What does this fold into?
Amino acid sequence: MPDFIIGGAPKCGTTSLHFILDQHPDIGIPDEEVHYFDADDPITHPDFLYEEKGSLKWWDPRPPALDNLKWYADRFSALGNPQFLGEDSTTYLMSEVAAARINALLPEAKVIFMLRHPVERAYSQYWHLMKTSRATDSFETALTKHPNILLGSSFCSGIRRFQQVLGEERVKVCLFEDFRADMQGCVDSVTDFIGAPRMKVDPERSWFNRTRYPSNIGLQRQANRIGRHLVKGRYHRHMGGERGLQRRVEDKLHYWWFAHVNPRLLRAERPLPMKEDTRAFLVQHLSTRNAGLSELLGRDLSNVWKDMTC
It folds into this structure.
């Protein structure tokens, strides 16, 4: 079972931190995000909850679902016997139930959160949804259809919840902006926190998420109307399931789409700029949703996050 968890937030550099820590000789982390402690949350994982033949399908992470607990333990069994085990599930910060479940099963595990300018993080998540064929609308419309875009940038309640349930000494918060400015210092603070020896960060092996953006947003949206069905099927099977002919065909189609079709649409080096009136709304709304975060972290975040008052 893990000694530490990278619990969020999405699009804040967590994958790069995971990628770096996985190079540590004393640390083992499963390659994919696990999502065990909030798998039944329809807000953080809408694709995990679905209807099939008139019945609601969902995955129960609670005891006494021992088969599901075995599934969780099996995520780490292939990692050998490193001194420190970790996992990366960036939706835990958003979940109302993950903190209590983590504390019940892993009473000594420590949790690391990476935060980023809330508006920039929300926009980055939208482009991630677009690049992975899960969004088919403009950013403005996506805000009305995907509540987790705003929820993912609402850090304060989640940090407070984890601190209250686990204790402040088991919760560490890093800022993406600090990570960008001093990667070695940030990684040193994380390894010190989990008790692992410090490691030398190789700048050539530090950034995992170097991606392209849609060069034709209209064409990308149209393509995503097809690709989203392939993605949804894969998320339905995140926790396993039967491997019949239909699944094998879906897996081949998924591979073909993301190996040969989607990359042809991702040619731009930068995303389209956000509309100023949309940014103004997000600054106002997300400042309100994160009110008290500076006090909670003991740091004036207005000095780091432009225009934010939280």
